[in-house]
Design goal:
Largest sheet: 6 strands, mixed
Oligomer: single chain
Distance between the termini: 35 Å
Strand content: 15-25%
Radius of gyration: 24 Å
């Protein structure tokens, strides 16, 4: 199995790099303008129309012109689909790099700019050291809140392990964020309190409609997203902590869940939480550990008896079988059914993943003293993140 992780790191502002990002943004805007005027959104037609003109006008490396053409094409297709107006772009768009335009060392990156290749030092947090001997692939430099970040992707082939261990079903819901078939419950009580607080605060700010209220609203939204990611990270870590290589984790296939309309209140709780993100976190943590992850169709898992496979009845958070009289928590019943379905042949294997990794590097440690991957690995402690137990 192939595992993919993304490291989010802060960067020092470099004048040449900022100038490259600014010129690149202008190139994207120019190509998009030409495509919008000529009613062309096809990537290859845009390339033939604008490549040499953009190359001559902006003096960017060829790979950046190709990337600008791709971004402009994607934007124009979106505008065409929504019948919108000519698109506008930020002054500093994210700048993509591949192995032709950047190289990674343990304490720096070498990036291609309009002034040539430049070395930019990096402060790498201790938590990321475990990934530094993986194979680096691509990078993306972006500007967020006047701070420069670089996202570097690393890949590694994880040896496949025979599935001869236990199978754990994972049911996601509203009353409980997660219920595992091994009888572990992660309550959403504290999460709901936090989300209600965010909802009320955002409603007050939206009613004011002042400039300062809108600025604060953006900060509140970002804080809520970070809170969701923090909880999902800790819950997923707790789930994986008891699994071993050779085990199997069974998740629900959530495709199409957003199309369901179950009422304003239910939709707020169901659609407001990033269950897809939680599944991604579970997947990439499991893959690194050599644990197989599959997705199955969740239809009727909370209405079928996990004891006799007959159709029962669910009332609130309680399930009772009308045939054999078996009763238990409805979410636990669903997770057991998911675990049983996971052993069937129609399961969908999930092997490639990409996590969300926080950019907090307050505990960053420079690794410039380590020159090789083996030397680095020998000096890295095997610490883990703190866990969260929701009650």
């Amino acid at each position: 199995m192939k595992s993919v992780v993304t490291l989010k790191l802060k960067m020092r502002k470099n004048p040449a790099l900022l100038q490259t990002m600014e010129v690149y943004s202008k190139a994207v805007a120019y190509i998009a303008e030409q495509g919008y005027t000529n009613k062309i959104s096809n990537r290859y037609q845009l390339h033939h129309l604008c490549y040499y003109r953009a190359k001559q006008q902006f003096h960017l490396p060829s790979q950046f012109i190709i990337n600008a053409n791709r971004v402009a094409s994607q934007t124009l297709r979106s505008v065409k689909k929504s019948k919108g107006r000519q698109p506008l772009f930020k002054a500093y768009l994210p700048l993509d790099f591949d192995k032709r335009t950047f190289t990674f060392s343990f304490d720096k990156v070498r990036l291609t700019t309009i002034e040539g290749r430049m070395d930019i030092p990096l402060d790498i947090p201790e938590y990321y050291w475990r990934y530094l001997d993986w194979s680096w692939q691509t990078a993306q430099v972006m500007m967020q809140h006047e701070q420069l970040f670089i996202h570097i992707t690393f890949t590694r082939n994880i040896p496949s392990v025979a599935n001869d261990g236990k199978t754990v079903g994972i049911d996601l819901g509203i009353r409980h964020l997660v219920v595992a078939s091994d009888k572990r419950f992660f309550s959403s009580k504290q999460v709901k309190k936090k989300r209600i607080m965010f909802k009320r605060l955002k409603a007050k700010l939206q009613a004011k409609c002042t400039k300062s209220a809108k600025q604060l609203l953006r900060k509140i939204s970002g804080r809520e997203q970070r809170f969701i990611a923090w909880v999902n990270h800790n819950v997923s870590k707790e789930i994986i902590s008891t699994a071993e290589p050779g085990d199997k984790i069974v998740l629900e296939n959530l495709k199409g869940i957003r199309r369901k309309r179950l009422g304003k209140n239910i939709n707020f709780w169901l659609h407001g939480w990033s269950f897809y993100q939680l599944q991604n976190f579970i997947t990439y943590k499991a893959t690194i550990k050599g644990i197989q992850v599959v997705k199955v169709n969740p239809c009727y898992t909370s209405q079928i008896c996990s004891h006799c496979i007959s159709l029962g009845s669910r009332t609130g958070n309680f399930f009772r079988c009308t045939q054999c009289g078996y009763s238990l928590n409805a979410d636990l019943n669903a997770s057991i059914n998911l675990a049983k379905r996971g052993s069937m042949s129609d399961s969908v294997l999930v092997a490639v993943n990409q996590p969300y990794i926080s950019g907090d590097d307050s505990k960053a440690t420079r690794v410039s003293s380590y020159r090789t991957a083996d030397e680095l690995r020998d000096n890295v402690p095997s610490g883990t993140l703190s866990t969260l137990v929701l009650e």
